[in-house]
Amino acid sequence: MTKLSSLFIVVFLFSAMKTSAAIRLIALINAGNPTVTLQWNMVNYPGMTTYILFKSSDGVAWETAAANPVFRKYTTSTKLAYRDVFSGEQKIFYRVKIYDTNKNIVDISNTAVVANPVTSYPSKKPLAKRNTNIDEPVTSYHGNIWQIFPNLAHDILNLIYQRNEIIKGVINIVIQDALGKVVVRFRAASTNKQLHLSVNKLHAGIYFIKINVENEIQLNDKFIKQ
């Protein structure tokens, strides 16, 4: 997973209502990559709330992109994220609505309008290296071969290696928060096929985890910290 700090950030903020929404929705893209990462904060509210992230190709007809059926006691410090992928659209509109347990709308975010990063921001070719005898290591990814549980983690996040063969190198683990900040960096010996990471000091929210061994990405996933 590319660190979010290295992404090309594009934020188009439009407000359909003349109000100052407490939710700030931003979009992060990488030029030439069809993936867009949406990030937003929740709000302070006396009761429990949940959210629905909506998307639209024209800003008129909206559909659900992501929703959480579980109501929680969120605050403005809670940061959430969702990753979407362009599939030919020239632009996509996004907005978040927060609901209480009676299905009343508590707040609505700004509308983020994201242009297709493949067609609108084509990636540039890398500059040629002076020493052509030095090869850059190639990172491969063939799917997740580690299992995460529980995905609604509280104190401990368990990682289980799902193959029989030996692990050929040091296990490098990186956990990033929804804003791309590295919050956990951990190394383990190749003999460890079961790992138990303490996450009790992390704030509630969505986190992204990556496991890298040698030049192979063995896990690229996310989990929710309660």
From TrEMBL:
Q: Which residues form the Secretion system C-terminal sorting domain?
A: 148-224
What Pfam families is this protein classified in?
A: Por_Secre_tail (PF18962)
* Protein name per UniProt: T9SS type A sorting domain-containing protein
Native organism is Ginsengibacter hankyongi
